[in-house]
Amino acid sequence: MAWFLTLFAAWWLLLALFYAFPQIDIDVARSFFQEGQCVGGARAAQICGQFPYSAEELLVALRKIFFYLPAMMALLILVLLIRNLQHHGATYSKEKTRQYSVALVSFVIGPYLLVNLILKTISGRPRPYDTDLFGGADMFTAAGTLNGACLNNCSFISGEAAGAGWVACLILLLPKSLRPILGPPIVAICLVTPAIRVSFGGHYLSDVTLGFLSSAVIYAAVTVYFEMTQDEKKRTSGTSL
């Protein structure tokens, strides 16, 4: 419960920070933006240019790989869960069932439902390359304002960063002895996706930060729910005649 409350509070504090200081998002996005000369029927004072990293073939390829990684990991965990459920007696692991179930439920609730189906639909926040600050036509909106010009698949929050954050949470499935060894490199690899999205102008820093952290919040919440449910079952079975 303590981890969930800490992560939940951290998410809202970060949102408040980005909302109060929107220049953070603008400055970080601007560091990846390269202004260029406008051609054709450009508007007065229009800013033209591009995010040059979005044309780098290696980064484009890495983005494609990491885009499908969460779904592939979820499929692998589903297979492991089914195989574990097929065991009986001493070969069946109740703990593995709980761990795999937490991971899968967190994936569905977090990156899929909360982020891609809800927040990215209602947030209204245009992506950096769609705003007039970086060659687009829409006005910039701060994180959490929910009143931008985007109508669908909006910038707040990043679905790919949420997926990467969920993959990072899978460190909990590793044996405790391996977590200090494999944990840091796994987290570092998972941070590649948010970095690429920002460098491409596809998301602001707040989008990827809150997207990444949202999966940790959901993972912790689902873990707490499973633990509370298990404790309730133990109390019920212990008091039954």
Protein model, in words:
With 241 residues, the protein is mainly alpha-helical. It has one domain. The protein has helices at 2-20, 23-32, 57-85, 94-122, 159-169, 179-190, 192-199, 205-239, and strands at residues 34-36, 48-50. A two-stranded antiparallel sheet has the order 1-2. Helix 3 (57-85) crosses helix 5. The protein is elongated, with a radius of gyration of 21 Å. The model has no long low-confidence stretch (mean pLDDT 93).
Task: Summarize the helices and strands and which ones pair or pack.
Elements: H1 2-20, H2 23-32, E1 34-36, E2 48-50, H3 57-85, H4 94-122, H5 159-169, H6 179-190, H7 192-199, H8 205-239
Antiparallel strand pairs: 1-2
Protein name: Phosphatase PAP2 family protein
Pfam families: PAP2
Keywords: Membrane, Transmembrane, Transmembrane helix
Q: In a nutshell, what does this entry contain?
A:
The chain is built from eight helices and two strands. It is mostly helical.
List the defining traits of the structure above:
single chain; 241 residues; mainly alpha; two-stranded antiparallel sheet; 8 helices; 2 strands; elongated
Whole-number mean pLDDT = 93
Number of strands: 2
Class based on secondary structure composition and strand pairing: mainly alpha
Give the overall shape, derived from the CA principal axes: elongated
Give the count of helical stretches: 8
Number of domains: 1
Name the poorly predicted regions.
Answer: none
Largest sheet: 2 strands, antiparallel
Domain Phosphatidic acid phosphatase type 2/haloperoxidase: 109-227
Transmembrane segments: 65-82, 102-119, 156-174, 181-202, 208-226
Keywords: Membrane, Transmembrane, Transmembrane helix
Pfam family, one: PAP2
